[in-house]
Specification:
heterodimer; A: MetI-like fold; 14 helices; B: 326 residues; alpha/beta; Rossmann fold; eight-stranded mixed sheet; 12 helices; 33% helix; 21% strand; globular; cell membrane (chain A); transmembrane helix (chain A); MetI-like (chain A); transport (chain A)
Chain lengths: 336, 326
């Protein structure tokens, strides 16, 4: 197991180099520079512009800038945001809990609904329920996030007034950030009204962000389950006189979960990518919105650092998921 | 009255208007302590018959019967819950491929103890002791270390022993073995058959042995039921049927045994295959393959006629000299 982890961690190095290279190249490919955008519409004196560029090291050749960046990054210094002058790491980790909170809720939504729906669809394959689930999930998977978000806001926030339009908590509340997770912080503060407000604000963004993972989880569970319930050992379990529920939940589900867990792991990437759009639409103060803002400000250190950190999280989660396999699947546990 | 009575069992698949009859009016019985062999080539409905008995035929399959009684209980009228109390306890089944019959995610101990938990109850420790006992009984060396093994750590023969331990866990009065040795090596086959026979004698179980190995039937069974295309074509005591088969199909099966043709260069075989859904002939289902088929065989389906020697479904059953009687 240890050698497996080491091997996987070793593989992360070239991946990281690739990620920094791509992030670096792409952000420099976009026309415009941070000074120009900081100056805004008034413009800036070309001499002052050149001086500032020199001060920030942007006058050096790109390869030189890249090497400098990598050198600093290896020492744990991702630079300071041009806009706020704050270290990128600090900014990222201040905002990251908001994104985790949203992503976890979205995943929870996807798994809590996707698993049972997929199981039921597999058991009743060919039924109206099955066809409905498959149709709806295909629609959900195909729906552009921004459009789906606007649609939900229009119906539930604007017309019905059930949920807030944007933000993380109503402005009336102030909660001391301890963990950065609003749900936990409000509970720590003992403010149930604030907790309710935070929960209220989470509903729509979670649904929007969770829709694609939900569709994927439901479809994957269904197809995996359908394969498993045709297996010989399921017939044997039934021949033992076990109830249908026990056969499905104990004997079939555990086997069917193996591919579903992989897919859930892979969805973390989708989730963080989706968070960028979702956070922007719902004005959710997470890293997604921060990245978008940084891109439009050409805040080179923030964008590069943000992408690097998000990539790190995705890789880490996938590593965890791979290790989680062993827990479900004894064949893998014993192979090593 | 026999322990298991099946009367005119029919299992159909496919559309209601044009169903495919996998099992077509099968009647058979098994007594306590009796070993009945069910033989027939692939697709003759042997397995489906046993699955129907266990209540394992799923929608869209349809099971009908005049009578399906086990130990005086009507299985047709039983609710799912009532049936589950019998299945796995009084009637147990072992399957063809032991390597795919055990759930890869759970230890063998868990899978045996589960059967005990559902039917016998008892404390966890009692179930574990009983499981060790069962593993010992089926000839697994060092049960204490095997009880926590996962199926992928066992060989095929070992897995089939575990399957047998699981099946006999609750002391069933009827054991159905559906080609229990087909997926195993020849040397292991003999061991498994010996084990089954030994357990059958010791526990006085009824054993329904589904196989296409006639040698196994000759060695182990008291009665034989020959099936073809979902129908019973001949039944009788093993010695009598082997000595003088009355149905041309049984005769052909026996003639195809290597022992019978040891002095010939080619084994005897019956040309053709079991009819499927779309090529079922009129009249007797065997008539396109039968060397003795007459006009009557092609027009009119024969009924299973029983006498003191057993039953035969043929218009012109073979006499002792192997010639058809008019």
């Amino acid at each position: 197991m240890l050698s497996f982890v080491l091997r996987r961690v070793g593989l992360l190095v070239p991946t990281f180099i690739g990620v920094t290279l791509i992030a670096f190249a792409l952000i420099h490919l976009i026309p415009g520079d941070p000074i120009e955008l900081l100056a805004g519409e008034r413009g800036i004196d070309p001499a002052r512009h050149a001086q500032l560029m020199r001060e920030m090291g942007f006058d050096q050749p790109l390869w030189q800038q890249y090497l400098n960046y990598i050198g600093a990054a290896l020492q744990g210094d991702l630079g300071r945001s041009i806009k706020t002058r704050e270290p990128v790491l600090t900014e990222f980790f201040t905002l990251f809990p908001a994104t985790i909170e949203l992503s976890l809720c979205a995943m929870l939504f996807a798994v809590v609904i996707g698993l049972p729906v997929g199981i039921l669809a597999a058991i009743r394959r060919g039924s109206v329920f099955d066809h409905t689930v498959m149709g709806v999930s295909l629609a959900g998977y195909s729906m552009p996030i921004f459009w789906w978000a606007l649609l939900l806001i229009l119906v539930f926030s604007v017309n019905l007034g059930w949920t807030p339009v944007s933000g993380r908590i109503a402005v009336a509340y102030f909660v001391e950030p301890v963990t950065g997770f609003m749900l936990i912080d409000t509970l720590l503060a003992g403010d149930t009204d604030a907790f309710a407000s935070a929960l209220h604000h989470l509903v729509l963004p979670s649904i929007v962000l969770g829709t694609i993972p939900l569709a994927v989880v439901a479809r994957m569970t269904r197809s995996s389950m359908m394969e498993v319930i045709r297996e010989d050992y399921i017939r044997v379990a039934r021949a033992k006189g076990l109830s249908q529920t026990r056969v499905i939940l104990v004997h079939a589900l555990r086997n069917a979960l193996i591919p579903v867990v992989t897919v859930i792991g892979l969805q973390i990437g989708t989730l963080l990518a989706g968070a960028i759009l979702t956070e922007t639409i719902f004005a959710w103060p997470g890293v997604g919105k921060w990245l978008v803002d940084s891109i439009s400000r050409r805040d080179y250190p923030a964008v590069q650092g943000g992408i690097l950190l998000v990539a790190a999280v995705v890789m880490l989660v996938n590593l965890l998921v791979d290790m989680l396999y062993g827990l479900i699947n004894p064949r893998i546990r014993h192979a090593r | 009255m026999a322990m298991l009575e099946i009367d005119r069992l029919t299992v159909e698949f496919g559309r209601e208007e044009a169903p495919f009859r996998a099992v077509d009016g099968v009647s058979l019985s098994v007594d306590r302590g009796e070993v009945v062999g069910i033989v027939g080539e692939s697709g003759s409905g042997k397995s489906v018959t046993s699955l129907a008995l266990m209540g394992l035929i799923d929608y869209p399959g349809r099971v009908r019967a005049e009578r399906l009684r086990f130990d005086g209980q009507d299985l047709l009228a039983a609710s799912d819950r009532q049936r589950r109390r019998i299945v796995g306890k009084d009637i147990a089944m072992i399957f063809q491929d032991p390597m795919t019959s055990l759930n890869p995610c759970y230890t063998v101990g868990f899978q045996i103890m589960e059967a005990l938990a559902v039917h016998a109850g008892g404390s966890r420790a009692e179930r574990r002791t009983r499981t060790l006992e069962l593993l010992e009984q089926v000839g697994i060396p060092d049960p204490a270390s095997r009880i926590d093994a996962y199926p992928h750590q066992l060989s095929g023969g070992m897995s089939q022993r575990v399957m047998i331990a699981m099946a006999i866990a609750c002391n069933p009065s009827l054991l159905i073995a559906d080609e229990p040795t087909t997926a195993l090596d020849v040397t292991i086959q003999a061991q498994i058959m010996d084990l089954l026979r030994e357990l059958q004698t010791r526990n006085r179980m009824g054993l329904m042995l589904i196989t296409h190995d006639l040698a196994v039937v000759a060695e182990s069974c008291q009665r034989i039921v020959v099936m073809y295309a979902g129908q019973v074509v001949e039944t009788g005591a093993v010695e009598a049927v082997f000595a003088a088969p009355r149905h041309p199909y049984t005769a052909a099966l026996l003639a195809s045994l290597p022992e019978h043709g040891s002095y010939k260069s080619r084994l005897a075989s019956l040309p053709g295959v079991v009819p499927g859904q779309y090529d079922r002939p009129r009249g007797c289902l065997l008539n396109p393959r039968c060397p003795h088929a007459t006009e009557r065989c092609r027009a009119e389906a024969p009924q299973l006629r029983s006498d003191d020697r057993g039953g035969v479904r043929c218009h012109t059953p073979l006499a002792a000299d192997g010639r058809p009687t008019p």
